[in-house]
Amino acid sequence: MKYLVQKFGGTSLATPELRDQVVAKVISAKNEGSMPVVVVSAIGRQGDPYATDTLLKFIGGINSEIPPKELDNLMACGEIISGVAMVATLEKQGYKAVFLTGGQAGIITDDNHTEAHIIEVNPKLIHKYAAEGTIVIVAGFQGQTGEGLITTLGRGGSDTSAAALGVALNAEAIDIYTDVEGIMTADPRIVENARVLDVITYNEICQLAHDGAKVIHPRAVEIAMQKNIPIRVKCAFSDAPGTLVTSSTDNGSVEIKKDRVITGITHIPNVTQLKIYTSESPESDLPQLKIFKSMALAGISVDFINVHPDVVIYTVKDDVAAKAEQILENMGFSPVVTPSCAKVSAVGAGMAGVPGVMASIMEALAAENIKILQTADSHSTIWCLVKRAEMEKAIRALHSYFSLGE
Ligand code: ADP
Ligand code: MG
Predict the structure, then answer these.
(1) For residue 253, what pLDDT band results from cuts at 50, 70 and 90?
(2) In this structure, which topology does domain 264-401 adopt according to CATH?
(3) Structural domain boundaries in the chain
């Protein structure tokens, strides 16, 4: 039996009409000879009755006093409701279907409540129901500890559930259905002529997702990549082929366009740059090490790190910047703080070894009078820090300079 994992995001499940559309995709997969295993997110977006944030508001928000273990019990409800709604829709259309919680589907996690990691998947019940021809619907975003406590997987958790099941079931593919036509050259909310990519490598989408592209969670990509299970990002409301995520040389059948230097532009808004001159501190004091240890101790995650002999530069999220600044001052430093910045990243496997990519990026941004506050690069990504107010302009400038919309 060949399994096909199909994951549906919350917006695709919000109304009975949408669920009918989604169920048609499940049924056609089954009719074409695959055994669909459906992973669902909670229904709807912010403000909708059963959306996760609405459940949280019910008890006073994520910062309420209730222990993380109990938060997980509550947060797991949204996916249970949408999963049962899917079973009802399938049964109404004459198909046998069954709902399983993450735990019942065999997703075992560590006990890091609200941000749990999957450590094992034992899909015994899925095999049992599938053998009877029953379509299995699994609650995304959740698992259970070895002791049987409900856990949730953090942001993008349903994508991760789908990927982990895809690997455990050795699925033919993991289809991620969402509200856009596929993975695009930039966030369509910012770039009007963003284009859907036919194919992208695991590494490229991983990089795009780590640097802000919300369309799929990077952890899901990393999991699928381990077993080379293809991911397809598709639109829940159309029959367009979407984007295939694969490794570039995959048995020669897929080849990434060689002339594509940049594949996509992505962004992370609302970060603060901290610049700390360390030349006053004696080297024996290991000032660089102390700075990063103190951030770690305070639970502040740092990004975009540049360490030089007498200056350390990095970014933190705007909302923890004041705390970070205070810590640095307490250590005797006088950090130079630039708030409200954004990290804009150009990603493309094709840039490796190609001369002049950085020059092109600088030229594109200079033409729009956008100041680059900091840069870094790897074989497949160039990162630029700009002021948040110029972020959209920078994304559009790069998108257009590299003709990504064409
Ligand atoms: P779901 O609820 O289906 O998981 P998400 O909101 O998590 O949906 O992801 C889909 C959204 O990701 C799109 O509506 C789009 O605005 C956003 N997005 C950001 N960057 C990209 C990109 N490069 N390609 C496609 N979508 C993107
Ligand atoms: Mg999502």
Answers:
(1) very low
(2) VC0802-like (3.30.2130)
(3) 3-178, 264-401
Residue range 362-372, pLDDT digits in tens: 999 999 999 99
Residue with tokens 């994992």: 5
User: Which tokens is 313 given?
Assistant: 């530069």
- Residue 400 main-chain phi, psi, to 5 deg: -80, -40
Say what the pLDDT of residue 303 is. Answer: 96
Query: Is any atom of ligand 1 closer than 6 Å to the C-beta of 100?
Result: no
CA distances from 20 to 15, 85, 92, 175, 400 (A): 9, 11, 10, 18, 39
Take atom 2 of ligand 1 and give the residue whose Cα is closest: 9
DSSP, residue by residue, 248-269 = TTGGGT----TT-S--EEEEEE
- In 3-state terms, what secondary structure has residue 339? strand
Query: Cα angle at 237 between 77 and 187, to 5 degrees?
Result: 85
Taking each helix axis as running N to C, give the angle between helix 287-297 and helix 321-330, from 0 to 180 degrees, rounded to the nearest 10. 130
Distance from Cα 59 to the centre of ligand 1, integer Å? 28
The architecture (CATH level 2) of 3-178 comes to 3-Layer(aba) Sandwich (3.40)
The CB of 79 under 6 Å from ligand 1? The reply is no
Indicate whether residue 268 lines ligand 1 (CB < 6 A). Answer: no
Residue 49 has pLDDT above 90, yes or no: no
Task: Please say if the pLDDT value at position 254 is more than 60.
Answer: no
| Pocket test residue of 43, 187, 233 for ligand 1, highest count of atoms within 8 A of CB | 187
Query: Comparing 3-178 with 264-401, is the CATH topology the same?
Result: no
| 233 CA closest ligand 1 atom index | 25
- DSSP E strands in 66-213: the ranges are 97-100, 107-109, 118-121, 135-139, 142-145, 150-152, 173-178, 199-201
215 lines ligand 1 (CB under 6 A): yes
